[in-house]
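User: Predict the complex with iron/sulfur cluster.
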Amino acid sequence: MGYTHLFGPVSSRRLGRSLGVDLVAYKVCSFDCVYCEVGSTTNKTITRQDFFPPSEVEEELMRFFSGEPSLDYLTLSGSGEPTISLSLGRVISFIKTNFPAYPLAVLTNGSLLWDREVQQELLPADVVLPTLCTVDEETFQKIHRPAPGLTIKKIIGGLRNFRRIYSGEIWLEVFLIPGINMDRDHLSALGDEIRRIHPDRVQLNTLDRPGTEPWVRPASPQELQDAARSLGLPGAESIHPAATHGPRVRAPADPASAVVEMIQRRPCTVEDIVQATGLHRQEVGKLLRTLSRDPRLKTKREERGTFYSWVGD
Ligand code: SF4
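Assistant: Here is the predicted structure with iron/sulfur cluster placed in the model:
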């Protein structure tokens, strides 16, 4: 029996071997970022709601953890913005009660951190990973194309408030897009704001998989280094392309479903699939050849290789 709300474990560039827990439907988000690797937002909202009964997630988690898996993190992320889900607090507390040995991370765009309920629900998580790309309203609108009512001022206010009450770690992502948010003055102002927010880590990220808009290109390693200097944050880390983390995972019982499940959520190269599933490279190639008879399998050539995605269903 497969999983509907869990995916992976995947090899995450920021969190190592991570089991994804998806609390929203495809593709519900408060943003429609030009660099999104999940696809265009079809339901742009900040109205919190439930997309399915949280007991479904709890049942899948109990089943998954009966095998005592080896993981670096359990991560709330997936098809959109997890804090929009009204089940956020319940699922976080279920995980911390039943699987306390596993660190819990929440990947969020940070757009609802001003909401008192969201803040309280996130408190038991070990790490919260929000995004902040700019302090300038016009650039914010251009990059994130947010739901009505969201402004960069509101989001920064939420980040500052959350930092004050949250004792876990905040790893702030700065997503860099050449030509949009990388000029020196812009980055210097962003660096000043980040110092005020005081996250535990600052991680510079750039495009790694095909984004929503074809004009978005990745920053080069040199551009990332220059950006770190302009931000004036000596400890800022660059997130490197997907790499191997830890021992190989045990190959899944149903490889075809595991591969489809994975590429349904994010475009992946053969190497990404090999790392995440533990399948042999030749077996992945063979599976993809078989799957390519189905029109839902799409491919796109990028700098890092050919990316496979599964569209429709
Ligand atoms: S990148 Fe994240 S925040 Fe932006 S549209 Fe995609 S899922 Fe939403």
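The pocket of iron/sulfur cluster is lined by residues 29, 31-33, 36, 38, 41, 80-81, 109 (CB under 6 Å).
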